[in-house]
Amino acid sequence: MIDKSNIPKILIESLPYIKKFSGKRIVIKYGGHAMVDEKLKKAFASDIVLLKYIGINPIVVHGGGPQINKVLDSMGITSKFIRGMRYTDGETMDVVEMVLGGKVNKEIVANINAEGGKAVGLTGKDGSLIIAKKMKIYQDHGVDKLPEIIDPGMVGEVSQINPDIIYTLADHDFIPVIAPVGVGKDGETYNINADLVAANIASAIGAERLILLTDVDGVLDSDNKRISSLAFKSAQDMISEQVIHGGMIPKVECALEAIKKGVKKSHIINGKIEHAVLLELFTDSGIGTLFFNE
Predict the structure, then answer these.
(1) Residue 155 to residues 87, 92, 179: CA-CA distances in angstroms?
(2) DSSP character string of the chain
(3) Which of 41, 117, 232, 291 has its Cβ near the most Cβ atoms within 10 Å?
(4) Contacts of 61 (CB under 8 A, 6+ apart)
(5) What domains appear along the chain, each with residue ranges and CATH number?
(6) pLDDT digits (tens, 9 = 90+) for 79-105
(7) Of 119-123, 142-146, 148-152, where does the model show the most confidence?
(8) Would you say 97 and 31 are in contact if contact means Cβ atoms under 8 Å apart?
(9) pTM to 2 decimal places
């Protein structure tokens, strides 16, 4: 429960940030627990609508791993992962496309529209938004041996972003909601990591910010305390020193890559916190980790 006596302070604190971000584009990768908890789903949708109403242009890119797992399990298909990426054969790709581009995408669109927004669901196939190529994974076996090439199936990486459809929707006050499914040069369908898609879209449209929702409180230091802001070089050093480790490494690398390609700043935040997006963008202390160029 918010202390009502703090509301004027919160509103005054948010004013300079609202001015700063007005008219700018912000890409938000929506995933983790925030996508399955009903209360958090509603809070996220209302955050997105509020951003649009105050003149900010949000673009949502979403994941859907748990939802895909549920459908695959019901079909008796065992999920297999290679370095954190889902092995995607033809049958699995059909399920991924159906779940991401259908059920999950349309639910997010419906939630945003129920809060008063005008959301439109897309996949990377629409308007050739995401051009992809097959990802190659190399397994190193030591200095004296050639690396092994591991086939992840229809797992892709982004070759090109064609953002015209995003601009067209934003110009007409729509909120794009994008499923991370790309198309190859010969019409192949590829399953792509949503963080990578979000980072590439943010770079392609010159976004002011990239926000990655996850289930932890951003980057933690060696004492497990949240780091509220982190310079580009410092973040790289923390990866080298294994302070940043495990599943946080690819998320931080996405955040840094976006900055390297022109995004002003990136954030990793805990989507399990209600109204996490607003609290990160519009308060001085934020709730996650902000990445910036020195």
Answers:
(1) 7, 11, 14
(2) ---GGGHHHHHHHHHHHHHHHTT-EEEEEE-GGGGT-HHHHHHHHHHHHHHHHTT-EEEEEE--HHHHHHHHHHTTPPP-EETTEE-B-HHHHHHHHHIIIIIIHHHHHHHHHHTT--EEEEETTGGG-EEEEE--EEE---TTSPPEEE--BSBEEEEEE-THHHHHHHHTT-EEEEE-EEE-TTS-EEE--HHHHHHHHHHHTT-SEEEEEESS-S-B-TTS-B-SEEEHHHHHHHHHTTSS-TTHHHHHHHHHHHHHTT-SEEEEEETTSTTHHHHHHHSSS-SSEEEE--
(3) 291
(4) 27, 28, 29, 30, 178, 180, 194, 197, 198, 201
(5) 22-284 (3.40.1160.10)
(6) 888 777 888 999 999 999 999 999 999
(7) 119-123
(8) no
(9) 0.93
